[in-house]
Amino acid sequence: MPRADRHFLPGNGRRNFSNFESGANMALFFHSDDVDEFLSLRDAVQIVEQALRNIPGRQGVNAPRKRLNLHRQFAEASFDTVLNIYAGGSASYGAIGAQIALHRKTIEGTVQKTPPYNPDQTELAHIYDIDTGSLLAIMAHRPRHVKGVADLRTPATSLVGLDQLARKDARRVGIYGSGHQAISTFIGLTELRRIDSAKVYSPTKGHREEFAKIMSEQTGVHVEPVSEPRAAARDVDIILCMTNTIVPVIDGSWVEEGQYIISVVGSNIELVKSGALDKPRREIDDGTLKRCSFIVALSKEQAIDSQQGDIYWPVQEGVIGWDKVAEIADILAGNAPGRSDDKQIILYKNQGGQGIIDFIVSWAKARGACASDSRPAPHRGEKP
After folding, report:
1. 51 within a domain of the structure (yes/no)
2. Do both 171 and 272 map to the same domain?
3. pTM
C-alpha cells in the first residue's frame, strides 16, 4: 500500500508507528511495512510452533477462519468480494486478538486469481492484553516475509513441524507452483534445512524458468525447471504444493516412499455457495490421501467448518477417515506421534490463516520494532 494512503501514520521515515492512549496504557498504531524487517522467517516459525503448542494445553485459543463471500457480476468481469475474520489468543505471549481482511478473487479456468483491478489486500489486526483487557496495538495490513514476496504467516505455518514430519536426511525438494507462496516457502525451507537440489513445475514455461533462475541465485541451491508435473515428484524428499489451483496438481501414483508433502490450498464452501465454483477447490487427489501413512491438518475444525475439499469431503465420501488425520498442534505438543519410519508418506495441510498465528506474528513484529527503536512495548509480558 503506498504511504500516501496511510493517513494514520505521521511522517515518512522507517519505523513509522505511533502511540495513542488506550485506558491506562499506550497502544501502538502501525502499518506492517514499518515492522517487516524485525522478524525473520526462522524466528516466525519458532513463534508459530510455540503458539500452536499452547492450544492443547489450554494456554492458547483459536477460532476457525470465517469467510463471507459476495459474488459480483459485471459486463466486463465477475469476482467474489471476500471478508475474512480471524481470532485467537496465547497465554505465552500475553495477548488475544482478531484480524479482519478484505480481498477479491476470481476463477479463471482451473486456477483462482486476483482480478487485475483488485485493490491491495486490506487487513486490520486488533491486539489486546489478556490480563488487563487493554488495547495493545492496531496493525494495518499483514506482516510480510522480508526476503520474499508473500505474507509471513503462510510460509511460517507451512514450515512448522519439519523436525517431527520430514525425514532427517530430506535434502531434495519438488515444487508445484511458482508464485509468492512458493518463493517464500522455498526460501524459508533452505534457511531451516540443508537443501541440495530442487525441481519446479508450473504450467507456464516462463514462470517456472524464471522461478528456477531467481531461486537458484537467491538460495544457492540449483533449481531445475521441469516440463512435466510428474517429474517434480520424482526422486525428491519434500514436496511443496504452493499453487492457486482449483483441481489436484499431484497424482497418488507419483508419490514415493518417505516423502513429506506440504499443501496450502484451503478451500471453503463459500466459493460454492456464491456460485464461483461448482465444487470445493482441491490441490491433493484422493490417490495421494489413500497412500499417506497419516495426514496432518492445521485445524480439523477449520476443515469441517469450511467443508474443505482436500480433507472434509474425502472423509465424507469414505476415501479416508478422521482417525487418519492428526492436528499439527497435537504433534508439536507431543500428544500425537510424528514420523516414526523413513518409509512413511506424510501430508501436512496448511489450510489457511488462523487467528492465533496472525495476531502473534503481528505482535512479535511490533515488539521487535519497539526493541530496535529503544521504545518500551506496551506490555509487561514475555518478549516473543
Report:
1. yes
2. yes
3. 0.87
